């Protein structure tokens, strides 16, 4: 896959008109601009196992490539999970590292669907055809799955595909067909093709997985019909595509190291089809071009050398003399240059209960690899229909569905390559809109390259240029949900009110409190909007529900259900054991805790602070003011000078002046000293630093609350304004017990079906040997190990081992 593209021109007819040369040059220039300026991304996701039950966690790793190498286009990946009706269950944004991303999704314990639909994409991919987004249905096994049900009756469908797009009168053309049920499963079809007189002109014979082909010598103004029977012997009729009276056909022949082509036109074709251009592209890059002369002869042919091309889909398109696409064919090039086979084995193997295992992965010299590893109970089975190789090289490039695509990479035999060519004949591929390209029209970019991580950014609306000059600094406090930490910072507004800090990356949900440093009243006349550039969650995902297919036998499903039931039983048992024999007591809340809940909100709630119940403190009434009351009560808080109403007392903590708040509104010290102690209900003195204060609160803060109904009373929740900002999806850590150390959890029954999951195994030339340790559960006696990944130069690895 690391081979560079090359461009080969074959001149089969000298060009004499300047206009033709100019069009050719314009075409190649436009194609080069498309390929270089609008590269395409593809996604593959490895899951830890093929099926799940409600309440379990789906662990996954996504790989993103562009062309033949890991993509450097996008910094963020979106993953949506939906139920079978398309209702979105989760909308996740993930950071892309090493051209990959990892995360997990917890299936609700009450989930009743038979599947979860996964859709993954980058912003950049949304600028192009949505048919190339990653889509996959994950099997969810319910309790009722063990009950035998009557299989649904599926409608059989047979579609016909002329080799290069059209059935042309007077040309003996290859017509491919695909016979599938409406659930995507292929079937063997028997039948024949008849003309309008009922005469048999061709036989229908399935070659592989419902696909086959026949040759048809189409006649002008003739109509053809296929008469066929399904596997139950029921008779059907399907009309073939209409015959065109004029046109071009393109036939491709597979040969070692080359692709032969034959281009034909019928005698009735107009002058624009007498001189044509054959163009071959790969990943939107021009690799071959030939001028083909059909003026003197109705047939011309040649061969395209392909041994130096990277493995993948080669698209051949025929253009008439006006550069209008008139025929198209795709063919798969397999030069076996994509193979990457790290050595995978065990230095220590333990298939007994709690046995220790050391998995060794040895990567060849000079290769930098990004791998993911899943080790599961072998009996839960595997969906071997698709993998990283078939997704990135085949199905990620095709519209429609391919039945068990991984099969086409199981060996290199000629018979398999011919079967793969049937896939090329019966599946659509149109990444390039030729009409737009020849007119010089490039794709419309609605979503620019998402090259930055989710950092802090936003804009202040309703603020004038004069206000920005006076209040150009916005003070922010970030309250992170994921780890309950807080941090404060200041950002400077630019001339149009925008602000950002690329050093602050947002994870999970973050509540951001804000205030203008120079003028706190500015928040009342402006609107602060935080925008980290994330796409909103779609209300619903629309996908072809009839194409949902699972490749897992009943024994594997029952094994998966067994593990799920065992885990649910253990969870319930642990809950019962925890409560059994334990006397549950409740602790009465202190008076200070009650007051804290009653009066404080936001950043003022809880925290490291000394709390004073002034309302019930008799000594408070003997104090002249708040500062006089606090004097000597808080270690490190220094109050000097005369206190009392109107006084100019000095307050310091850690060498600086603490911030002062009255009912959570920032005030100066004179406002606090002017309040009668009879009106004060509650005081909190926050230890330095206090993140609710401007400048980070390095000297702490004093917050005073007046009695409800008294002067300066503020409703709960009054304080700094805030907004909730969504960041990257939180990620759990995969739990793998270590039975070699003491841990109370090691005493619990262990019935994990996924024994080990590591989504980020990175190797380099200097660190190419990796040792991964895990322990067996209580009952598994055979493992299935799957290692997948890509190298920096675009090689793909898919290793599967069954260990018994």
Automatic annotation (TrEMBL):
Keyword terms of this UniProt record: Signal
Signal peptide as annotated in the record: 1-19
The keyword Signal appears for this protein: yes
Name of the protein in question: TonB-dependent receptor plug domain-containing protein
Native organism: Panacibacter ginsenosidivorans
